[in-house]
Design a protein that fits this description.
By secondary structure, the chain is α+β, with helices and mostly antiparallel strands. It is about 35% helix and about 15% strand. It contains 17 helices and 20 strands. The longest helix has 19 residues. It starts with 7 loop residues before the first helix and ends with a strand.
Length: about 550
């Protein structure tokens, strides 16, 4: 068919695209070929050059003219894919001679490569034609085609990185508008599994400027999460399982349906993270958290985001689901980790900036002072007073703090938010409740018993409570001063009454559980006899759910 392009790299790319491979598939394959031969069709395995006494060129000439007749059985890797096994080398030699081409001819080797792929590796060939993530395509080629002795995660990452470079060069270079800070809208090479959701807008109408984090409200694998996004009218760009594997459900060039805010989702890469604890703090595994940070670094690097700025509201470029709609997502644990996530990502990006890091052992947060900081300003940010911070840190002169100084923020944030736990039933004195822990405008709510469903340590309104009977109508974030002891939910003092909720579009059991101060498991159990197919991830609009107290 004749090769087009000025370099072997361009010729190979154009050839593979011409054979029907997707851009991600071609890039994934080329990354592996580069690792094998540096895209040199005459490449003789380095360890055999000295052993056989040949260079790349002299070996090729000797095979072509017949002066070297052990090509098939010498066990030396040769060519683009470093063909080594005798039967594959024999087939390539026969193929080259039938075509009247040199054994080192690039077009001949590409034709032979596709002949192999379409025959013995047909399922791989089909996957490369539909692949939407470089990492997934690269892994398939590595494991199913090249099959080197070392198939470790490090090798997979390295080869996918080569492939991503080709993807960015031949696809990403036209993906972003001029002046967008290098925003190429490529996909992450960290992806292990791909299942594209139909629930997306293609393409997104803005450049990527943000990252928005969600939790799955369940311990879902990346495969299960992908299946959910096939039927539920929602999606995310990526998902991370508790095992640290990464799934892609919407390419970065497209807008996911994740945050109940088209404006945000058109600017953000959205990430769902699995929970290894259901309910309570909605804990996330250390492996998933580490992968989340790694993924955020990758997203920032590829999209020209120099620094993640977590502001505690939707104005920053590291945001959470709850900033855009009435939801508890991403759950208390992940929410508490946002300062740490920003700091770790920025550290790896080389973005020097003040930030905070949570200490899981003490519950305190450590803030690093940057230029322009004052102790008063830091105290205000964390919902405490400068006097308490000065005392806690042994600062004799509150007016004198230095850039780089570490300021420890007490786990209670200076407020009395350590007095109660999630699940406690308290007495709400009757004041205002707010839609967010940092809200400035609240509405009045009646006094009465309520259950604590979330705690945001150090926040302006640290407790999220939900009324347990009709005495009060409180449902939101309240001040610590507005609640008092009234018994604990574990002591049997909660109301035994139930509530009926009619499911509407957009409802999820995790959000209903948070709203009514119960758990997903309890709702499922209470309704299993009425709706036998109810699961933690499946409810139907119109169902009348019994919500246990």
């Amino acid at each position: 068919m004749g090769l087009t392009g000025k370099t072997n790299e361009e010729r190979i790319w154009n050839y593979l695209i011409g054979k029907g491979l997707s851009s991600a598939g071609a890039a994934g394959l080329m990354g592996n070929l580069f690792a094998e031969s540096a895209l040199n069709p005459k490449n003789l395995q380095n360890s055999y050059e000295k052993k056989l006494g040949y260079t790349d060129d002299s070996y090729t000439v000797a095979v072509d003219n017949g002066s070297y007749d052990n090509f098939v059985h010498d066990s030396a890797g040769y060519g683009l894919a470093q063909w080594t096994f005798w039967s594959r080398k024999e087939n390539m030699l026969t193929f080259a001679r039938a075509a009247g081409k040199s054994i080192g001819d690039l077009e001949m080797q590409l034709d032979f490569l596709c002949k192999e792929l379409s025959g013995s590796y047909a399922s791989l060939f089909a996957a490369l034609k539909t692949a939407s993530a470089v990492r997934a395509a690269s892994d398939r080629v590595l494991v199913d085609f090249e099959r080197p002795a070392d198939q470790s995660e490090a090798v997979k990452v390295k080869r996918a990185g080569y492939g991503q470079t080709y993807y960015d060069k031949y696809v990403g270079k036209t993906g972003g508008a001029p002046g967008n800070g290098g925003n190429s809208m490529s996909n992450s090479p960290l992806v292990n599994y791909t299942k594209i959701s139909p629930h997306r807008n293609s393409p997104r109408n803005n450049t990527i400027k943000k990252i928005t984090i969600h939790h799955m409200a369940g311990n879902l694998s990346v495969e299960t999460c992908g299946n959910v996004f096939q039927t539920r009218e929602a999606s995310a760009n990526y998902g991370i399982g508790s095992d640290g594997r990464v799934g892609m459900y919407v390419e970065e060039k497209d807008r996911s349906w994740a945050s109940s805010s088209p404006e945000n989702d058109n600017q953000a890469v959205t990430i769902e993270v699995a929970n290894d604890q259901i309910g309570g703090q909605w804990h996330v595994s250390d492996t998933a958290l580490a992968k989340l940070i790694e993924l955020c670094v990758d997203i920032c690097k590829r999209n020209g985001i120099a620094k993640l700025n977590f502001t505690g509201n939707k104005n920053g470029n590291l945001t959470m689901h709850k900033y855009f709609t009435a939801t508890a997502c991403p759950g208390p644990y992940l929410e508490s980790k946002f300062p740490y996530i920003a700091q770790e990502v920025n550290k790896r990006l080389g973005a020097g900036a003040g930030g905070s890091e949570s200490s899981p052992s003490t519950g305190e947060t450590v803030y690093t002072v940057v230029a322009g900081d004052t102790l008063i300003g830091i105290a205000k940010k964390y919902g405490t007073t400068y006097q308490k911070l000065a005392e806690y840190n042994g600062i004799s002169n509150p007016s004198l703090i230095k850039v780089g100084q570490k300021i420890k923020i007490p786990g209670s944030g200076g407020a009395a938010s350590g007095s109660f736990n999630v699940g406690d039933v308290v007495h709400f004195s009757g004041s205002k409740h707010y839609t967010s822990a940092s809200g400035t405008s609240g509405s009045s709510a009646k006094a009465g018993p309520a259950k604590i469903t979330l705690i945001s340590k150090g926040a302006k309104h640290p407790y999220h409570i939900v009324h347990t009977d009709n005495t009060s109508n409180v449902y939101g974030w309240v001040d610590a001063a507005d609640i008092g002891a009234a018994g604990s939910s574990t002591g049997g003092t909660t109301s035994s009454k139930t509530t009926t909720h009619t499911v509407v579009a957009g409802d999820t059991l995790s959000e209903l559980a948070a709203k009514y101060g119960t758990t997903v498991a309890k709702i499922v159990a209470a309704n299993k006899s009425k709706y036998s197919n109810i699961t933690a991830n499946y409810i139907v609009v119109g169902w009348k759910l019994t919500i246990p107290a």
